[in-house]
Specification:
Helix content is 43%, strand content 16%. The chain is an alpha/beta fold. The longest helix is centred in the N-terminal third of the chain and has 30 residues, at 33-62. Bound molecules: adenosine-5'-triphosphate (ATP). Adenosine-5'-triphosphate is lined by residues 218, 258, 260-266, 393, 441-442, 457-460. Adenosine-5'-triphosphate (ATP) binds next to helix 8 and strand 16.
């Protein structure tokens, strides 16, 4: 059976197990009133009993010979009393002796019963520690000495966080942290963990996090708060250890890639919605390009200062941003190397819902102009306070020719390891986005500028929340209605989306427009005559207005 089928089966099975568990819980401990309380009490007693038995059994298995000897002595004592037909009690003595001799096991069982979590953690830690010499040697970390002795890196501490076991490992003399980094995937597999993260603690000391869960539970976003709306660390979801996941927006461009249904909308709205309070105060300005006819961005249009649903408008928005960038260059020259956003001189965030619609599926002239302007923004914008968040489904070259200009990448579920490689390059080994399961939309690897990956799940943004946020935190400088603007009703949005899809597709030419003509077969082009250089275009009036305000 091939891997995708197996993955699909596993996902179906997982979903069934989750729903069966939920149903059982609802029918028992989840019930309201006295019956629910009775179920909960019974479950608590059963669990503690089970933990006592487990603790005692583990101790007995570890001291099997001693337990056997106690059994022989106890039964032997009782047997002698019985055979000799001595009068009096023949049971109490042997039983008391057995209880006294087995008392450490009983204490062990009580420990497991009273603090089950602490007990399980300690037991797991002991197992990891006991296996470490073998694991380290098998993963190539051993150093054989002339006398035949094998030295291994010291495992000094084991720590537990939600969803991860953290091993603190010290390099041997002659080893570098790279040696440990290289061995990390093998150590992870040997301990049967779901993934790993590495953190350098100090020179020669590494914290290796082994993930104990493969999935991150989804959560729904709440209303954003002004103090949290920082482009230097925007809260966008949860990490595998249950901590808040942060995304740095300022000073970097972000490419978001994911298959259809992988949750690009969650990433987009986590950023747009998360920044909304800063938009309202004027320290962030959003520009949006949504060439799917506005189906995604229309719902939050009042948050955007510039918005485009058609390719010609998209080019206009890009030109305005380039003009702002050029003005800023002059203003910042010799004074500052990184733009500090503030009301009146905001951080500009350009949000593109489907990059390929602009860069691959538009007409030739638009593509060329968009490519030129995007290159400028991507190469010069980040220090000048103009950042891009571009979402795309297809990571191939024709759709994202400039992917190397995005220092930060978010890889949601991808269809194949080839696509992961295309998006993440060498970081793919640590961020296998093609292994993210379909039932976990919004789960993604964030690969930062330094190449360090982190698995996280972006919060889900329901439509009602987006509308509410757009209403509360509207920008003080709202966008003019874009040409081809839609009514906000869902029915209209769907119609517009269908029309836009038809314009892009080559099966239906009904929605053909000048911006997006349906592809048709072309004759081979004759070589071009050299042209006189074009006079530079004057900057559009709107852009000047943007900068001077
Ligand atoms: N963070 C999340 N948690 C839970 N469910 C989510 C999350 N994000 C998205 N979903 C679910 O997945 C569905 C698809 O998400 P979304 O539309 O964002 O995907 P997409 O990648 O934008 O797809 P497309 O490229 O086809 O537009 C949503 O309708 C929602 O039900």
């Amino acid at each position: 059976m091939n891997t995708p089928t197996l993955t699909g089966l596993r996902a179906t099975l997982d979903t069934r197990v989750v729903s069966a568990r939920t149903a059982l819980r609802t029918a028992t401990v989840g019930r309201a009133g006295w019956s629910g309380k009775a179920w909960r009490t019974a479950a608590w007693i059963a669990y503690r009993d089970w933990m006592f038995t487990r603790g005692l059994t583990v101790w007995m298995a570890k001291h099997a010979l001693f337990v056997l000897a106690v059994a022989v002595v106890t039964v032997g004592w009782w047997g002698i009393l019985t055979l000799a037909e001595l009068p009096g009690d023949r049971v109490t003595g042997p039983v008391l002796l057995a209880l006294v001799l087995l008392s450490p096991g009983l204490v062990h069982g009580l420990w497991a019963m009273v603090t089950p979590h602490g007990y399980l953690v300690r037991m797991h830690g002991r197992k990891v520690l006991a296996a470490w010499p073998k694991v380290a040697t098998a993963c190539g970390l051993g150093d054989r000495q002339p006398g035949g002795e094998v030295l291994i890196p010291k495992l000094s501490k084991i720590r537990y966080e939600t969803g991860a076991t953290i091993l603190r490992i010290h390099t041997l003399a002659g080893q570098t942290l790279d040696t440990l980094h290289r061995a990390a995937p093998a150590i992870t597999t040997t301990y049967k963990a779901h993934g790993f993260s590495t953190t350098t603690v100090q020179p020669g000391v590494l914290d290796l996090g082994l993930f104990t869960t493969a999935r991150i539970a989804g959560s729904v976003a709440g209303l954003p708060r002004l103090e949290a709306a920082s482009p230097d660390g925007l809260i966008v979801g949860r990490t595998r250890s249950g901590q808040v996941a942060q995304l740095v927006v300022r000073g970097r461009h972000t490419l978001v890639v994911g298959a259809t249904g992988s949750g690009k909308g969650s990433v987009l709205w986590s950023v747009v919605g998360g920044l909304a309070p800063a938009v309202h105060t004027g320290s962030v300005e959003l520009s949006g390009l949504d060439l799917k006819g506005g189906i995604e961005l229309e719902m939050g249009r009042s948050l955007f200062t510039r918005i485009a649903y058609e390719s010609t408008d998209a080019v206009r928005v890009l030109r305005e941003l380039v003009a702002i960038m050029n003005k800023r260059k002059e203003a910042m020259r010799g004074r500052s190397r990184l733009h500090e956003p503030r009301p009146g001189d905001p951080l500009h965030v350009l949000v593109i819902d489907e990059l390929a619609d602009l860069m691959a599926y538009s007409d030739f002239e638009t593509r060329r102009e968009a490519d030129r302007l995007m290159s400028k923004v991507l190469t010069q914008g980040r220090a000048l306070g103009i950042c891009v968040l571009a979402c795309v489904q297809n990571p191939r070259q024709d759709a994202v020719g400039q992917r190397n200009l995005y220092p930060q990448k978010i890889a949601l579920r991808l269809d194949s390891d080839i696509e992961t490689d295309m998006v993440l390059g060498p970081a793919m080994a640590l961020a296998p986005a093609h292994t993210i399961l379909e039932p976990d939309p919004g789960t993604a690897y964030l690969v930062r500028e330094d190449g360090s990956p982190e698995l996280m799940r972006f919060d889900y943004w329901p439509d009602d929340l987006i509308r509410d946020v757009a209403l509360r935190f509207a920008t003080p400088r709202p966008a003019h209605a874009p040409s081809g603007a839609l009514s906000t009703s869902d029915a209209d949005a769907v119609n517009a989306w269908t029309a836009a899809a038809a314009r892009r597709g080559n099966t239906n030419t009904a929605g053909k427009s000048e911006d997006n003509p349906a592809p048709r077969p072309r004759k081979p082009r004759a070589p071009r005559k050299p042209r006189a250089p074009r006079a530079p275009r004057p900057a559009p009036a709107a852009s000047t207005e943007e900068v001077s305000s």
